[in-house]
């Protein structure tokens, strides 16, 4: 088991590049299952644990996948099987995104129930509502969901009760091969939805309106493999923007796109952070004094829940009191206890965290309670007095490529060690002395 050790106190300086977006690449990889003809080639695919998991799901159902040097190639033209077992879905909920494409292409899909996860119960009722509206019969039993359609899915008018990202993607993929037109209302507007729609259209699909609240999908008879470059990861980019700001540093984040990061940029500027846009990225300069602000997480274009933990780290260093209200996931404050171990002053009142600062953080041993919490604690460690050790890095590895190496390249004093080896070495040293 690895851990990351950060020695606080250095200002970050330099340039760092965002990878392709995890939350865009996972649905796009699922969509490659829609291609009855031709290979799909994806570029800028980040080497993440989640990409391995979804690639294995595709292999399991009969897709040939090769992946090397950020280039991912799939051939799904063979006879696909229709089951995604618990082994994969339990590792990563996004595995459930293969349901829409398999149902559309094979008329049946049998996927393990995703269940809840650390940040919330995360039901999938809106995905299923969409499939049923298109004529699928859905049954749940023995830990699996089976969706089946007699002939072909039928276009339908579907209103989502909540603009769920996953439901929008899953239904959009199913509708791409349905008979007739599907109108999806109150849908998610995230940039990753637009990326998926662009890929489906490159395959010969007819998706219009992605990025707005209503998407129209005219079903086609067949889709063909296509080439596509994944958009930059706005959450990874945002994490480095916060790392720059919290240390009072100056960092150019390549791939940080303003139109994808509006709420974060607006709030950081309100705090006094200087952000200059330029071709291909943003230059972030941290001020001497950070001002407190209030944020509320919301579906896009609101403030992203995936930036909430990192933003909390920043607010611990602001002069005054800031509020964070989490409205998307009911249990996404687990990192608060970990920040408290580092001497942060944070109180939780219902769905709101009250953060008082600036508080001198102290190095401590903390645990990455989820993916973004892991990054946030490392970022907090950059300004803590002494040494911060972050464990449970399997969460971090789902969404960040070489996070410690990228921070090192910006001048941070951070290393990743194998915890067992580290324990072994200290034992040997103790034995010798
Ligand atoms: C792989 C991926 O892209 N993950 C992102 C995606 O997750 P994901 O697609 O799972 O998130 P959703 O937008 O679906 O979930 C948002 C909220 O809607 C609820 N809900 C969702 C579906 C449903 O059928 N019923 C229901 O009640 C969820 O419990 C949650 O409270 O969007 C989230 C919200 O921006 C991000 O935090 C995740 O990083
Ligand atoms: C919550 C996240 O991802 P997932 O939906 O894959 O759990 C995230 O990326 O922060």
UniProtKB/TrEMBL annotation:
GO terms for molecular function: UDP-N-acetylglucosamine 1-carboxyvinyltransferase activity. It is found in: Cytoplasm. Its EC number is 2.5.1.7. InterPro entries: Enolpyruvate_Tfrase_dom, Enolpyruvate_Tfrase_sf, MurA_subfamily, RNA3'P_cycl/enolpyr_Trfase_a/b, UDP_GlcNAc_COvinyl_MurA. GO terms for biological process: cell division; cell wall organization; peptidoglycan biosynthetic process; regulation of cell shape; UDP-N-acetylgalactosamine biosynthetic process. The active site is at residue 117. Keywords: Cell cycle, Cell division, Cell shape, Cell wall biogenesis/degradation, Cytoplasm, Peptidoglycan synthesis, Pyruvate, Transferase. Phosphoenolpyruvate binds at residues 22-23. The modification 2-(S-cysteinyl)pyruvic acid O-phosphothioketal is found at residue 117. Pfam families: EPSP_synthase. Residues 6-407 form the Enolpyruvate transferase domain. GO terms for cellular component: cytoplasm. Belongs to the EPSP synthase family. MurA subfamily. PANTHER family: UDP-N-ACETYLGLUCOSAMINE 1-CARBOXYVINYLTRANSFERASE. Cell wall formation. Adds enolpyruvyl to UDP-N-acetylglucosamine. This is UDP-N-acetylglucosamine 1-carboxyvinyltransferase. It comes from Marinococcus halophilus. The lineage of its organism: Bacteria, Bacillati, Bacillota, Bacilli, Bacillales.
């Amino acid at each position: 088991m690895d851990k990351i050790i950060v020695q606080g106190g250095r200002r970050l300086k330099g340039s760092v590049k965002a990878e392709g977006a995890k939350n865009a690449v996972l649905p796009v990889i699922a969509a490659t299952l829609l291609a009855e003809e031709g290979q799909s080639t994806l570029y800028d695919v980040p080497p993440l644990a989640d990409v391995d998991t979804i690639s294995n799901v595709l292999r399991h159902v009969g897709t040939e996948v090769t992946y090397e040097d950020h280039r991912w190639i799939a051939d799904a033209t063979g006879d696909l099987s229709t089951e995604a077992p618990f082994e994969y879905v339990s590792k990563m909920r996004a595995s459930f995104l293969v349901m829409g494409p398999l149902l559309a292409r094979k008329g049946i899909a049998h996927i393990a129930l995703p269940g809840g996860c650390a940040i919330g119960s995360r039901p999938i009722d809106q995905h299923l509502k969409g499939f049923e509206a298109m004529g699928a019969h859905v049954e749940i039993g023995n830990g699996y969901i089976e969706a089946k359609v007699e002939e072909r899915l039928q276009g339908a008018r579907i209103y989502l009760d909540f603009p769920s990202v996953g439901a929008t993607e899953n239904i959009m993929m199913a509708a791409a091969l349905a008979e007739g037109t599907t109108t999806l209302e109150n849908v998610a507007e995230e940039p990753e939805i637009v990326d998926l729609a662009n890929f489906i259209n490159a395959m010969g699909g007819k998706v219009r309106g992605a990025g707005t609240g209503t998407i129209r999908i005219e079903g086609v008879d067949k889709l063909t493999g296509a080439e596509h470059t994944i958009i930059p990861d706005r959450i990874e980019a945002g994490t480095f923007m916060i790392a720059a700001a919290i240390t009072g540093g100056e960092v150019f984040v390549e791939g940080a796109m303003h139109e994808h990061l509006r709420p974060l940029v607006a709030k950081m500027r309100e705090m006094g952070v200087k952000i200059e846009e330029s071709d291909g990225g943003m230059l972030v300069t941290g001020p001497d004094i950070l001002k407190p602000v209030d944020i509320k997480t919301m579906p896009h274009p609101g403030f992203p829940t995936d930036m909430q933990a990192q933003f909390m780290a920043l607010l611990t260093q602001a002069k005054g009191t800031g509020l964070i209200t989490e409205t998307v996931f009911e249990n996404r404050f687990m990192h608060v206890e970990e920040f408290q171990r580092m001497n942060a002053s944070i109180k939780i009142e219902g769905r709101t965290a009250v953060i008082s600062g600036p508080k001198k953080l102290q190095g401590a041993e903390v645990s990455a309670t989820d993916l973004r919490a892991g990054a946030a604690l490392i970022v907090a460690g950059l300004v803590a007095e002494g040494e911060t050790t972050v464990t449970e890095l399997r969460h971090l590895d789902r969404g960040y490529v070489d996070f410690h190496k990228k921070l090192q390249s910006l001048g941070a004093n951070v290393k990743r060690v194998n915890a067992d080896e580290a324990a072994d070495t200290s034992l040997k040293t103790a034995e010798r002395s």
